[in-house]
Design goal:
By secondary structure, this protein is α/β, with parallel strands linked by helices. The protein has three domains: 110 residues, 3-Layer(aba) Sandwich (Cobalt-precorrin-4 Transmethylase, domain 1), CATH 3.40.1010; 105 residues, Methyltransferase, Cobalt-precorrin-4 Transmethylase, Domain 2; 40 residues, no CATH class. It has eleven helices and ten strands. The strands form two sheets. A five-stranded parallel beta sheet has the order 3-2-4-1-5, sandwiched between helices. The N and C termini lie far apart (69 Å).
Amino acid sequence: MSCGVLYVVATPIGNLEDITARALRILKEVDLIAAEDTRHSLKLLTHFGISKPLVSYWSEKEKAKAEEIIARLLSGLNVAVISDAGTPGISDPGVVLVRRAIEENISVIPIPGPSALIAALAVSGLDTDGFTFAGFLPPKQGRRRKRLAELAHETLTLIFYEAPHRIMECLEDIRDCLGDRQTAVAKEISKMYEDVLRGTLSEVIEKLQSRTIAGEYVVIVEGFHKEAGSFDEALQEVHALLKKGLGRKEAVRVIADNYNISKKELYDKSMEG
C-alpha cells in the first residue's frame, strides 16, 4: 500500500476571501484535516461547506498527535495540515508533523497562500530585496534585549511578530537596542481594523499611544547601516572586496549601503587606485 500525501495548506489570516481555489479543493478532497484548533478551523470549514474528520495537533499535543497523523498517512490516507491562520509552521504548529513526514519519506506538498509577514513586508515601504524573519521575540525583557543585540548588525530588513500586550515594550526595546530606525508596524492584516503605521520607531511608538492596542502585530524594521563616517574606511573595504574577486559595481553597492554614502562618489574614488 502506498503512503498518503501531507498537504501544508495556508488559510486566511483574516478575510476569508483570501483562501485560494486550490486550498479549497484540497481541503474537500483529503481524508483528514489536522488543525491547530479544531474549534477555530471548524468555522472556516463550515463557511465553505467542507465536512471532513478533524484532529487537533496544537502545541502541547503536537508530538503525540504527529505520530497518530503519520500512522494515518502511512496507511494511505491523504492529510491536510492547517493552522488557525496563515501558513502552518511559520511561527505556528506544523513543523514537527512536516519533519516526521519527511523522515518517513511521505510526500509533503505546499499549498501556498496568505502569510502575515509577506503581506506586511509588501506594504512596509522598506527594503524587500532580502529580509530576516525573527518570529516572536522572547517575552522576558532580558532575553529579548539579548536577542536584539544579536540582530543589531543584520543589514537585511528585520521582521518580528508580537502580541498586543507586549507590542509597546517590544518596540521600545527595539529602539533602545537597534537605534531609532525606520519601521512599519501592521496589525489585523486583511481584517476590519487593519492598520499600518510607518515612520521612525519613536514616531510609531508615539502614534500607538493614542490608538487602541489590539490584534496581532507584524513589526518591520530597516536593517543595519553603518553611520556615514570614514570615507577612507569604506574605500578600503571596497578594495578588499575587489581583491577577493567581487565586481566593482557590486562591491561599491554593498559597501555604500552599509556606510550610507553615495555609490557614485565611492565608485569614482575606487577607480583612482
